[in-house]
Amino acid sequence: MKRWSKQLLSGCLVAALLLSMGGCQQGSIPSSAVSSQAASSAASSEETAQSPAQSSETYSDMPVQTLELDASDPDYYQKALETEIYNYKLIRNVPTAYTADSWEAYTSTANTLLNIDPASLDDVSKSMIDNAVEKREALVQVAPAADCMWYIWGDAPATAETVESSDFTAESYDNADMKPFLVPYLVEDQSTAKGNMIVIAGGGYSSRGNAMEGYPIAEAFRDLGYNAYVLQRRVAPYSEEDVWLDMQRAVRYLRYNADSLGLGGMDCMAASGFSGGSGTILGEVAYLYGDVQPTLFDPDYTPDEVDQMSADLDVICPLYGPQYSAEHTSDYAGLVTDNPNLPAMFLAVGENDATGAMPDIWTLANSVRGKTVVEVHTFAEVGHGFGAGLQGTTSTYWIPMADTFIDLVMGRGEAGAGEAAEIPEGYTQMQQYTFEGGFGKADVTCAVDDTKTKVYMAFVAFDQQQVVEGVLNDGIVTVTYDKSGFMTNDAQAIYNAADQNNWQPVA
Length: 507
Prior knowledge:
single chain, 8-stranded mixed sheet, 507 residues
């Protein structure tokens, strides 16, 4: 069996710092789609988790382990340590299941257990174990586990390389029974959802830094109007191919279950990833796009109905992790793929990133230019692992910038929206089309009269609504009105882009 590579993506350096509070793990709840009522409950429970006073109902269905052993037993504390580490690796995955204060009190206490040597349990160590157990017993669960843990695979997930329970150790990020799932952060009114954003925290392919790159990112995108989901992907001892398999399955899971879950905004499927999370997205885009099946990496896997959905993404935001192979190389060539439907890409990195992500992000951008829309941001005085943004730097603006980028490429933003002012009287035929000029792409509304002797064109350019009118003489435009004064020289080219055989009556 192939062993896990010790050369991880560049994000591992930061992931080690995040390990104590990052990530997620789970118990053995069977995989199943939840109802739309459960989806709504997941949204409300997340809100409740932040405002405990609003909760009127509590639950107790998280699959934690309990120890049936008296404290006087000589093996008690060693077993208690093992049990509580298991529970910590489970509970840190699902902050939305609990009130915020009780979850934070438990996880901040229990993560210290990872530093205890089980072969040397002194009084201080025993006190730490007792404290963690006390904090777990004080947890207030305000949402059912099924509302907070959407398992994305069936009973037999695709697995590129065999992993045994014995491959997991106390140092492994997950418990051996880990099953990949999504933690949903849903907008209250699904009819207003702008899209669906899958969030993948970094940590190379060995851990998940959700504390900085998962939960707060999902909350931020939800607050901007997106359904957001933190993907709890498999990590070591699983292979990089298994990580990519989880990514494609998450996309397909949401598409397949959108109706039963009552999800809106399904015309926009997006993903944001950090370091190893960025590599997770890019590996999926490179290998498991469209109708490519998981059997690419697991020939023994039997595809199901979920696998028949498209794995394509509309927009991706890979941050400071352009290399998607766990073997970080100096001859990185960007995104090498036969994928014919590349998503639009919003790329960002810190100028002081010492992992190599800064030059590599430009290699990635250049490898897809001309194939899709790509935007790159390099933030000054910022290194690796800035998450939602480093205070005091412009990196704090990346999430609203990404939101604007998504609006533009999805045709919702000001630039290129093509939502022109009402077509004036006298114009009887019109069409809408995309024009690309020196100012970028714009969706144009173009109208003419019956005799094609005058023309009206409206579009957004330079972040302003542009309106141009003119007279036509054998197709030659003479501008008589230019709202901004900037577009006269472009008017002829914009009109020439119209399809003279595709005029439609003005409604």
